[in-house]
Specification:
The protein is an alpha+beta fold and 575 residues long.
Length: 575
């Protein structure tokens, strides 16, 4: 394994956001690792999904949303996976992307996004302002096992993960539990977020723990406005799909060109809404500053009644009913008598009158001349800036996603063709069979961490170079104390079978098989005495770390290996 491959394959073990940005194949590798994992397959046996057998895919997916929301928290604790140095990471990736280009599209290296992010001070928004100078946090992406293991940490009652972890979890679960073909799932990454677009009905976007349908996307609520931030304000850096990927900075793309064109069309259709009564009400909900210029004019008991826009939106708070959807009449029934006016409010425009004008004039909000005409019509009521109001309305109803430029060199690769009806074992066998044809499938086994199917060197490199939490946790302990404390931890691995946790997973979740504890101990010892040669010898039942003395752990992983760590050199017998 040459240096380039070792860097990439060890990154499949670490799975930091930085590594995924530089090596875009890793994103889908984690999806495949989660698909191979028995953890998500167990969800199929949950009563809540058993009851939905034979029901529509859409209904199963909506139930999946509630399941994910019940079982996982969104975690943005930047210290979860420790700290690194900006210069270290820049140097590490300089052979792949120039440092100044990394800074253009990565939040840890200077990226601030467009005007929205300048306005909210994005570094403070994400907590990056707590780090000074060269220090930056690792943003590591969790496997489903690591997400589940958050339950073992203080302060967590359920699993947890950051946005990339949740998007890969959703993609895998949509395939396994909901039976959605991988062809219909597109992963969309921006510098600060990760979402999926699922081609079902009018389209669904996953956003952290939530699913956002097209009507929800345009409903003007705070939650929906937040869901829009990334696609509305950021360049999409990577699109990952079962046919391949495309990256905003690389000249070559492996995604199927027709599939990419299909996503472009589907996403643009999803991000465009007509100017209707409902969508204008949604706009006023989102842009509350314009509500004072409008009123709603309705018939009530055969009489025309008028109510201020902000008054009616006030009734929406805490209510299940919404303006201009199928529950509008029920909302009106909740309005107190004194909040209705029997005469039109002279300095406010009726929303119904506005929409009558839009329909009569056939206003197309995308056309500048029609926007001008609409601004003139509302000007007597929106006194501050009618043109800005119309511009805001146009922006609300339409987003142009900044996908990676399609003018790439598209290289056809062996696509990953999994069938929803396959068993987990059939899927693993299939992925094993295409490892020599598809690097994403090959990398998936390293993200999956099954050491009977992987070379050891990438795992070792990741363990002793990118696990600062385990080192920090024992800063004040002697080596003998570290050994004793590791021995005293629970002996259960968060991974099944011959799969292994990294040292920082052992440190964070305070549990691990003896072989995982041995790597954790070796990481700490190597950090303190980097020139001290180390050996890790596993014979199936026990594992020994040989340094100036021997440190032995019991293991149930039944793995055999002989590893030597000498400075920054890693050697594995038989590899």
């Amino acid at each position: 394994m040459n240096f380039d491959n070792l860097e990439k394959y060890s990154s499949a073990v670490t799975l930091s956001d930085m590594e995924i940005f530089v090596f875009p194949e890793l994103m889908y590798s984690l999806v495949l690792a989660n698909i191979m994992s028995p953890a998500i397959w167990k969800w199929r046996d949950e009563e809540t999904f058993q009851k939905l057998k034979g029901k529509s895919t859409y209904r199963r997916l909506m139930r999946m949303r509630q399941f994910v929301m019940d079982e996982y928290e969104f975690n943005l604790d930047l210290n979860t996976w420790g700290l690194t140095h900006k210069d270290t990471e820049m140097s590490r990736f300089s052979d792949y992307i120039a440092p100044d280009r990394i800074a253009e599209s990565n939040a840890l290296f200077g990226y601030t996004g467009d005007q929205y992010y300048f306005d909210v001070d994005i570094r403070r928004h994400f907590g990056l302002d707590q780090y000074e100078g060269d220090i930056i946090p690792y943003w590591k992406t969790e496997t489903v096992e690591a997400m589940n293991a958050f339950r073992l940490r203080d302060g967590y009652e359920v699993g947890a993960g950051e946005c990339v972890s949740l998007s890969t979890l959703y993609a895998a679960a949509a395939f396994i539990v909901c039976g959605i073909p991988l062809d219909d799932i597109y992963m969309v990454l921006t510098p600060l977020h990760s979402q999926n677009f699922i081609d079902i009905n009018e389209g669904i976007i996953t956003n952290n723990r939530r699913l956002v349908t097209k009507p929800m996307w345009f409903n003007g609520t705070e939650i929906s406005d937040k869901a829009q931030r990334a696609i509305r304000n950021e360049q999409v850096t990577i699109v990952a799909h079962n046919s391949g990927h495309i990256h905003c900075m690389y000249d070559e793309a492996t995604i199927n060109q027709k599939q990419y064109q299909k996503l472009d069309s589907l996403l643009r259709r999803y991000l465009d809404a007509p100017l209707t009564h409902l969508n204008f009400a949604n706009f006023l909900r989102s842009y509350g500053k314009y509500q004072k210029a409008f009123q709603f004019c309705r018939h009530r008991r055969d009489e025309r009644m008028f109510v201020k826009a902000e008054t009616l939106f006030g009734y929406e708070h805490g209510s299940r009913f919404r303006i201009y959807d199928e529950t509008f009449d029920k909302l009106l029934n909740d309005v107190e008598e004194e909040d209705f006016e029997v005469y039109k409010i002279s300095d406010r425009l009726c929303c119904e009158q506005l929409m009558a004008f839009v329909d009569y004039e056939k206003i197309n909000i995308r056309k500048p001349e029609d926007r001008k005409k609409l601004a003139v019509f509302i000007a007597p009521f929106v006194k501050e800036d009618a043109e800005q109001c119309v511009e805001d309305l146009a922006v609300f109803l339409h987003i142009d996603p900044r996908l990676p430029d399609s003018k790439k060199i598209f290289q056809a690769i062996e696509p990953i063709q999994l069938k929803p009806e396959w068993s987990r074992e059939e899927i693993i066998d299939y992925l094993e069979s295409i490892r020599d044809k598809n690097i994403t499938a090959d990398l998936a086994f390293y993200a999956y961490r099954d050491m009977t199917r992987c070379q050891w060197k990438p795992f070792v490199k990741a363990a002793v170079e990118r696990c600062p939490v385990s080192i920090e946790a024992h800063t004040d302990d002697s080596i003998e104390q570290v050994y004793g404390q590791l021995k005293a931890l629970a002996d259960e691995s968060i991974y099944d079978g011959t799969r292994l946790a990294q040292p920082d997973e052992v440190a964070n979740y305070k549990t691990g098989d003896g072989l995982e504890k041995a790597f954790t101990f070796a990481n700490i010892l190597h950090n303190r005495q980097p020139q001290l040669p180390l050996k890790i010898i596993a014979d199936g039942k026990t594992v020994t770390v040989k340094a100036d003395t021997d440190y032995t752990f019991e293991t149930a992983k039944n793995l055999q290996t002989h590893i030597r760590i000498d400075g920054d050199s890693y050697k594995v017998d038989g590899e």
